[in-house]
Design goal:
The complex is a heterodimer of chains A (125) and B (510). Chain A has 125 residues and is mainly alpha-helical. Chain A has a domain of 82 residues. Chain A has three helices and no strands. In chain A, helix 1 runs antiparallel to helix 2 and helix 2 runs antiparallel to helix 3. Chain A is elongated, with a radius of gyration of 23 Å. By secondary structure, chain B is mainly α. Helix content of chain B is 73%, strand content 2%. Chain B has a two-stranded antiparallel sheet with strand order 1-2. Chain B starts with 25 loop residues before the first helix and ends with a helix. Classes of the chains: A mainly alpha (125), B mainly alpha (510). The interface between A and B is large, with 49 and 50 residues. Chain A: Its main location: membrane. Chain A: It is found in: Cell membrane. Chain A: This is Na+/H+ antiporter subunit C.
Amino acid sequence: MEAVMSLLVGCFFAAGVYLMLSKAIIRILIGIVLFGNAVNLLIFTAGRITREAPPVIAPDMDRLTGIAANPLPQALILTAIVISFSFFAFLLVLALRTYQELGSDNTVQMRVAEPEGDTLPPLGY
Amino acid sequence: MAVLPNAGADALLMTPTPLADWLVVAPAVLPLLVGAFLIIVRKRLHWQAPVAITTLALVSLASIALLARVWSEGTLVMTMGRWLPPFGISFTVDLLGALFAVANSLIALGCAISASRRVIRSSRRYGYFAFLVLTAAGVNGTFTTGDIFNMYVWFEVFLISSFGLLVVGSTRAQLDGTMKYGVLNLIGTTLFLIATGLLYGIVGTLNMADIMRKLPLIEAAPLMTLATLYLLAFGMKAAAFPVHAWLPASYHTPENATSAYFGGVLTKVGVYALFRVLVMMFPVQLLELQTVVAWVAGSTMMLGALGALAQNDLRRMVGFQVILGVGVMMAGLAIGSAPGLAGGIFYALHSMVAISAAYLLVGVIERRSGSASLNALGGLWKDVPLLGAIAFVLVLSLGGLPPGSGLWPKVMLVQAALEAGRGWLTAAVLVSSLLSVIALGRFFLLTFWRPSSTESRSKHDGTPRVLGVLTVVAIVMGLYPEPFVAAAVRASDGLLDPAAYINAVFGEQG
């Protein structure tokens, strides 16, 4: 199970990185979503996949015995999902606004903050 | 598969947390609450600045009190929800964290005061001061937490607030800059999350003290990969070569007080995380990586120095000075010995003050002359001699010349590098300093001494008080460095020997 998940995570990472290498902002953003989901699956897999043994303490015990599913990675993923979701929402709005203002979503043409052919500082006094 | 850590240990602390220990979380929690309040009252524009300034003043007092307690009592711990570590999230403040938290709180306060006179109504309405306070909360949280996943969450807290701070105002340059800052920093923190997920898979714990305890016992695990991932992730956040591109693209675009805060503090968060994670958690792997770190440090310094030489715009020149400073701090990491780390820590404190002051200075110059271009500026010495004196002190500080604050940390680093036999790293520190002095000297010469070509636009600007105070701090750090050196040395000792940190979290028997 872990091996299959690892392969899946690898595919997600590959696709995410490939898209992030693009010049178009929207593809970069889709790449970021894939990248974020790859990390979520990675944490899930790294926490070991244990099926059909919920981490519930039996009524007559005061601690967990035996191997049970690990709830912590799921809590971590939940946090990571919320964070990456809000970041993605912000970046989408920002990308739209940038596209409206700059008239381009091509990173090569986005040179407002760092203009091409900027003048050099004076060489003499 | 033992994934649940310490199964069988007692899990709950039965006594309530002493009231005095709440000081540990105050620098992070107080601004977080007030930030939320400022968003609720966002329509009351005249409340924003006073509430933010009062809060940051209180946060500064709390962090100073925390530093005083850590100085006298050693590392302080408070574990959330009364769960015993490693089950609950432990806030663990050692000297390094407390020092950085004080510097961050004071600089945030200075920038809030400086911004209160400049930030226009529309920016206030869209939450400028709320974002500033929340960014300070996130940075303080990073400096005080003792849990690696919690550190990731604080990273995201200050990152999303810094997006807001960077873009509020929405000029075209800001949108362009924020887009690049946002995407690249998000990738950086995602790498941090990857490393943390894998680390949890290997160690089965997220508490940093617990990780320090358990990592040396683990054999045959891809720890080298993890250390390298952390180096890349935090290097990206610190703007180290070759993953620095977001900094020169964005730091010159926002409101000046924002640039001052970002340049002063945010890159140092990456440096802090490098020190905390690599030195304390991966000391063996860091030894292997030292050559890589040294190359990164050297190239970052040279890139910063050469970049500063090539800039016509003052704010972009200061941006490259920020990068240069990151290289110098990473040189401390590359040397790895106690004096080297102490030099890096002292340099970080100096750089927080001097860089913030430099950005504020550029802001004053810009408002006075209506330009920040070296081609257009001139004649300011005659107009405002006091500003010239301030600028001169800052040029000395940033260039690492006496009596500025940059001298002593560089002396410590050069000494430590020579002792460690890293000759060419020493050369990189010195050559980059020389180039930086040339760039800064040219700035001073052209801006202040060159005869003015145009009439200066505004004569009345109000006294730049925050800038004055920061400059005085820079002189004090240069003329009376003993307390700072002592603090940096103690902080670096705490980094190299994590036993005190672990004992503070788990008690002596741990």
